[in-house]
Amino acid sequence: MSRTVWTWGRFVGSAVILTVLIWRLGASPFLEGVRMVDAGALAAAAGLGALTTLCCAWRWKIVAGGLGVDLPLPAAVAAYYRALFLNLTLPGGVVGDIHRGVSHGRDVSDVGRALRAVAWERFAGQVVQFVLALVVLLALPSPVHSFMPLVAIAVVAAVPCVVLVARARRGGGRFARAWQALAVDIRDGLLARRAWLSIALASALFVCGHAVIFLIAARTAGVAAPPSRMLPLALLVMLVMVLPSVGGWGPREGALAWAFGAAGLGAQQGVATAVVYGVMVLVASLPGAAVLVVTWFRRTLPSRRSEPPLSKGTARA
Question: How far apart are CA 312 and CA 301, in angstroms?
C-alpha cells in the first residue's frame, strides 16, 4: 500500500508542478526548450554522459569490491547505463538501481550484499554531491546564498551528533546490531584504504560532468549569463532532482523557474533550460536501451535454440 502511495505521489507531485508552470508561464517555454535542442548539444551530452557513467560504474566497482563481491568494470558500465535509462523512463526513479543490484546479486549468488553495494554507492555519490554543492553555494552568489551559512552550521553540528548516537547504540539489541552492520559496510565499502579517495574522485567527476551538461543546456536555451553565475544554479537543480519525481520532470522545472526568476534571468528561461537539460540527460542514457535489447536477445536466443525441432511427421500434420 505504501509503495503504491509513494509511486502515485511522484506522479501527482510532478503533474501538479508542471500544471502550475503551464498555467503561469504557458506552454511556450517547454516547446521552445524542445525546439532549441540541437545536434551539438546532444553530442556533448552523449560524450559527457559516457564519462559520468564510467565514473559511476568505477565507484560501484570499488564499493562492491570492498563489500566482498566481484564486479568487472565493463559489466558495471553496461549495467549502470541500463539502470540510468530505466530510472529516467520508469516510475519511481530507482527501478534501474534495484534491477542492477538484483542482477549483480544473482551473478555472484549474494543478492543482499549486491543490493547493499548499490545503496552505499548511491549514498556516497549523494554525499559528495551535497558537499560540493554546499561549497559552491557558499562561495558564489545565488538565490539561496543567504541561507547557506545556516545550512553549513547545521551540517557541521549534525556530524558529531550522528557519531554520538552511533556510539550510544553499541552493545546488545537489534538496533545495536544494525548499527554495527552499517559501520562495517561503511568501513569496508566506503572508507577502506585508498577506496575513499577513488570514490570521492569518481563522484566529483560525475558532478562536474553534469554541471557542464547543465551549462551547455543553458547556453543552448539562449542564456547569456557567465558560468560563475550559472554554476550555483546547476548544483542547486542537481540537489532538487533527488526529490521524488518521474524521470526528474516536475521538480527540476519548478526549481529552475524559481531560481532563474529570483536571479533575474526569467522564469521562462529557467523552464526552457530545464527542458533542454532533461532531453540531453535522456539522450545520454540511451545506450542503456541498447543494453536492454542486447540482454533480451541473449536470454531469448538460447531458449529458442534449446527447443527441439519439429519432426517431419509433426510438420506434415
Answer: 23
